[in-house]
Amino acid sequence: MRQPMRHALSATLAACVLALSGCATSGAPATAVETRSTQELLDASTPADWRTPDPANLLYMDLAGGRVVIELAPAFAPEHVANIRTLARGGFWNGLTLYRSQDNFVVQFGDITEEGVPGKPIGSARAKLPAEFDRASAGLAFHALPDADGWSAQAGFVDGFPAARDDRKGAGRTWLAHCYGTLGAGRDMAPDSSNGTELYIVTGQSPRQLDRNITTVGRVLQGMDLLSVLPRGTGPLGFYEDPKQRTPIRRIRLASEVPANERTPLQVLRTDTPLFDAVVESRRNRRDDWYVRPAGHIDLCNISVPVRTPPAG
């Protein structure tokens, strides 16, 4: 019970600093503490509260309806990410399709072929990779949540990615959580049967049962609205029965390979700051007029990390 109390005090102090108001520091927040909405907290942010993703870790998926921006996570799946970069540079996904949309689950894209029909060449990319379901916790700046997690010993964030870890028996393993917008590498029965050519994006209720059973390689920063509205496939597991129902992919490129004037400028709120703690607290205990009582708890996958277009000037 002590950790949540410490976090509540820490969040209260952070809110006090942001609100520039006095607060009690003896364990319980003073009744005069000013509270702010998530938007008010973000409006009070400083440039240091935001980070600009590395263009070498960004994928642009261009569809007829617009662009989906995906941030890759080489710290968690370095071999898959390296292969995905190679595939993107070779134009592997250009002209392929989103061929699956399963209700309340995922959309999937890549090179779907009929049985016995050769697939698209993968060029210099590797056909075989090891499973990268989790990694050693050492070397990761894990920003933990005080809230209990039903799928791990502890949940939190690593550089903006929702993650979980288990260090209870000295195992020291951390992994990316299957939250809305997570990008994963589809596999067959064998754990090491993924190579990054077939990818899926979570569009439904967070399927955390997949954690540590499949390699997760990133998350969508912008463009989920283009994916979540795709017509649901009527075939088994949401596959489109008619190829005409598939959504064409114009191209998928690394942002680092795109001219600067054609890139999508984005900033992501840092998840290792007092401001982020205050933002999480504003979602954990909603104090909007509509809410009758605060929840006192928040699930990892219910925390949306804010993304914005950099302000002018």
TrEMBL record:
Task: Report what the protein is called.
Answer: peptidylprolyl isomerase
Q: Which UniProt keywords apply?
A: Isomerase, Rotamase, Signal
Task: Output the Gene Ontology terms for molecular function.
Answer: peptidyl-prolyl cis-trans isomerase activity
PPIase cyclophilin-type domain sequence ranges: 66-254
InterPro entries on file: Cyclophilin-like_dom_sf, Cyclophilin-type_PPIase_dom, E_coli_cyclophilin_A-like
* E.C. no: 5.2.1.8
Q: What class of enzyme is it?
A: isomerase
